[in-house]
Structure formats: structure tokens, C-alpha cells
Amino acid sequence: MDNWFTEELHPYYRKSLRVKRFLADEQTQYQHIQIVETEFFGNALILDGVIQLTERDNMGYHEMLVHVPMLAVGKPGRVLIVGGGDGGSLQQALRYPSVEEAVVCELDQRVVDLSRQHFAASFGDPWADPRARLIVRDAFDFLEENPGQFDVIISDTTDPIGMAERLFSDKFYKLMVRALSPGGAASTQCEQPFFDTELIKKIYKSAKKLTKHPAYYYANIPTYPGGGIGFMYVSNTPWAKGLKSKYPPGKNKYINPEVHKAAFALPEFFRKELYG
Ligand code: SPD
Residue 148 C-alpha to ligand 1 middle, in angstroms? Predict the structure, then answer.
């Protein structure tokens, strides 16, 4: 029997994954969580009908989102992950021996519980690390209460729809930069150059007002719309400083020095739109 999950994030574009079986299907106070076992991509986490990660291709997303700011800072001590309840970013952040504490500020406890159950084969159990701290609450309030506290902030969010829309606002970027320690760096999930040009331009403009060296970079993720996703690097420290840093212990599956550098090269139509 042919069973397909089709994502309909955009009214003009759809993509489907062949599903073997449903592992979880739950409506929480915040969202509809589904975890499916797919035929090619392993287990997949789907929130409100949108693919968040698959076991097979999440490494491009999590490694690029996490290591680019971590390497730019060099030896980060305190890290904040906004969202990221699936544990993928946490797993990468904890690879750094310099990290004393990695706080995950996630709104929905069920994302953590279900991911822990169904993605252990890929992420292990980063929550068991004594340096990991889960805070189940709204990230805005948490950022507001913690100025200058984090060497690295990673905004690992869903798309700017519904309750997540605020996480792409000027106010969020202001609070995020304010929560960075001097010399700190942030990275944010920053959507798709083809589909979200105006949003990315708006975010870049606001990051530019707040920091000296914001820059957009991109990774290939076949299960995201357009086959990939971009990130906004937000810092007063240039991202290229990270090219000189040593990778943390453990194996990378996606990032290497060439990919790290090349990720900041943008296709001409988009480079012009963004940087003028
Ligand atoms: N269009 C899908 C964007 C998903 C970004 N969030 C992924 C969360 C994985 N930790």
C-alpha cells in the first residue's frame, strides 16, 4: 500500500515522503505533533503538518546552525537554544568541552518527550548530560530576563507561522542580541531564499542595525522546501573567524572547512537582493 505524507507549507509547492508507519500523532496545547517512519529518510518529526527534521538529512541543518556561531566564538561557555526541543541542536552544542551549560528554552514539553523516545538512535540522549538544562517556557520572557548571559544563542524554530511568527520579529532579534555576552554570536533558522526573500531581507536589515557582521548562509536539506534552508549569523564577531577554530570532538557529517566557507557564498540574484 502506498502511503505518503505531503507537506503543504506553500500554496504553490508541495513535497511528499513515503511513509511506512505512524509512530506518534498527538495534538498538544500548542501544536499537532506527528512522528512517522519514512521509507528513505528514517524517522521524521512533523509539527503542524510541516517537516522539521528527518534522521537522514537533519545533520546539514543542525551542524550548520550550531557550529558556525560556536566556532566563531571559539570556546563558548554558556549556550542558549531557543526551541530545539527535539534535541538535535543540543547534541551538537554539547560536543564542545568548553560548554558549561546549554539551556534549551522550548515551549512544548511533548516535543522533548516524543523526540527523546523516537530519535534516540540519531541524537542519543543529550538531555542526560549534566550540562543540559531544559526550560519549558516562552523564549521572549526568558531572553528579557537574561541580558548578556550567553556566548552563543541558537534560534532553532519552526517556520514563522502562528505562535512562531514572533520569533522572526525585530523585537526578538533585539532581545536575542541583548542576551549575548560581549563577543558572542547567534544563528537563527532563516528560511528559503526563493520563497522567503522579503522576510530574509527584513531580518538582515534588523540584524545589521544590531550587530556589525550579520551574514546569511545556506545548507542543503532535501526534505525542506526548495531542498535547503538558510540561517542568519548575527554577531559583532565576523563568521570567518570560525574558519580558524578547531572542530569539537566527534564526527561531523556535513560541515567541513570548505562547506563552512562556501555556505556564505550566495547566488547572484539573492546576493544582490540581500546585500545590494
Ligand atoms: N520549513 C521547515 C523549517 C524547519 C526548521 N526547524 C527545524 C527544527 C529542527 N530542530
Answer: 26
